[in-house]
Design goal:
Elements: E1 9-12, H1 18-28, E2 32-37, E3 51-52, E4 55-56, H2 57-62, E5 67-71, H3 76-88, E6 91-94, H4 100-103, H5 108-114, E7 119-124, H6 139-146, H7 166-189, E8 194-198, H8 199-206, H9 208-217, E9 234-238, E10 243-247, H10 252-261, H11 283-294, H12 299-308, E11 313-315, H13 319-324, H14 326-330, E12 334-338, E13 346-350, H15 374-380, H16 386-395, E14 398-399
Parallel strand pairs: 1-2, 1-6, 2-5, 6-7, 7-8
Antiparallel strand pairs: 3-4, 5-14, 9-10, 10-11, 12-13
Length: 403
């Protein structure tokens, strides 16, 4: 079965991570994503290590399932080609510094004259408006500016960047979500629209509870390590052979059974700890007691015992352990995709978490070589004949993959 977005054509001018991650999600859902790249180097992430079989694994991981078209947008003929492409596509996505597309004469106001149904999604560090719109931003800048680093890390220690590129990834997800909303609305209005996504805005949105608690109480959220600000125990603990995570936040009966398992039933007499919604207030006293008790058995032994109580818990995996975890394997969360071009072999990547019962989602092919689909797109999408394509190649306006 084709994916749910089959037939949706997307011009993808994005580079690095935020934009490519968003368009990758749409490709996983079946959209035809045409990655428009600059002559010579293409997306800068094609050079990011590690490099395997002359392919950047970074680039491969977020550009799977896309097609690559190389065209020089700094030339009049290149811009003409692009306008023709935009007239045939549903969505355009870019994550340049605001003003870049206007400088090329390819901003939304221009493009909508050629295609009123075009949905134009722009993803940037600080958004398209405001006094800092022109400033560059990367993930760590967005994490710092949004406040999320101030609540990440151990209490009493320095702020820590979240271990994944939260600024890029959240902006990419909000870009994809906004595009789907605009596509749905277009079925009623018949018109496209402009989408403005900011990395900083996106991280702030992910912190919704921290901000709401601050607005409601005036208390400034702080770094708590793996702990929860309102529930306890709800964190990582050391065990005999590693670490585990658990959330003993159920009713009093479960708390009693938990204390019995860890051989600390004496704590049941402390009525302060009976209410899971107030237990966090005494976490400084409780945490070292539980940590000492949980060191007596292995992670697997504790998980088996707490599973029997219906208590949420699990191992604290490293990446290597997570890659071998039976749960992830049973859910098909890792897939092998073929290397681009004539290269032999495959590269294992993370599968999409989106599961649809009738119209499947997920990657169907790997990332493209630079210019791999230039001739195909020029011919099929805008009807250019082989002679005209060859002439443009000779002029360096478009580039096709060398066979």
């Amino acid at each position: 079965m084709p994916g749910p977005l089959e037939g949706l054509k997307i011009l993808d001018l994005t580079w690095a991570l935020a934009g490519p991650f968003g368009t990758m999600l749409l490709a996983d859902l079946g959209a035809e994503v045409i990655k428009v790249e600059r002559p010579g180097a293409g997306d800068v992430s094609r050079t990011i290590e590690p490099i395997v079989n002359k392919v950047s694994t970074y680039f491969f991981s977020v550009n799977r399932g896309k097609k690559s078209l190389v065209v020089d947008l700094k030339t009049d003929k290149g811009r003409e080609i692009f306008l023709n492409l935009a007239a045939e596509c549903d969505v355009l996505v870019e994550n340049f510094t605001p003003g870049t597309m206007a400088g090329l004469g390819l901003d939304y106001e221009t493009l909508k004259q050629h295609n009123p149904r075009l949905i134009y999604a722009a993803c940037s560090g600080y958004g398209q408006t405001g006094p800092e719109a022109q400033k560059p931003s990367l993930d760590v800048i967005a994490q710092g500016r949004s406040g999320v680093m101030s609540i990440t890390g151990e209490e009493g220690r320095e702020p820590v960047r979240v271990g994944v590129s939260l600024g890029d990834l959240s902006a990419g997800m909000f870009t994809a979500l906004s595009i789907l909303a605009a596509v749905h609305e277009r079925t009623k209005s018949g018109l496209g629209q402009m989408i403005d996504i900011s990395m900083v805005d996106s991280v702030v949105a992910m912190e919704e509870n921290a901000f709401v608690r601050y607005f409601a109480t005036g208390e400034i959220p702080r770094r708590l390590g793996s702990k929860h600000p309102l529930l306890s125990p709800f964190q990582a603990f050391p065990t005999k052979d590693g670490h585990m995570v658990l959330a003993a936040s159920g009713p009093l009966e479960q708390w009693a059974l938990f204390l019995e398992k860890i051989d600390r039933l004496d704590l049941l007499s402390d009525e302060r700890l009976h209410n899971p919604r107030r237990r966090y207030k005494y976490n400084e006293e409780l945490e070292p007691i539980l940590a000492e008790a949980l060191k007596k058995k292995t992670t697997a032994e504790w998980v088996a015992e707490f599973d029997a109580l219906g208590m949420p818990c699990g191992p604290l995996n490293g990446i290597a352990e997570a890659a071998r975890d039976e749960l992830m394997i049973s859910r098909g969360m890792f897939v092998d995709l073929p290397m681009p071009g004539e290269r032999q072999g495959t590269l294992k990547v993370v599968n999409t978490p989106m599961r649809l019962s009738r119209t499947p989602a997920g990657p169907t092919r790997g990332a493209p070589d630079l210019g791999e689909h230039t001739r195909e797109i020029m011919s099929d999408l805008i009807g250019m004949d082989a002679g005209a394509i060859e002439e443009l190649e000779g002029q360096g306006i478009i580039t096709a993959r060398k066979k």
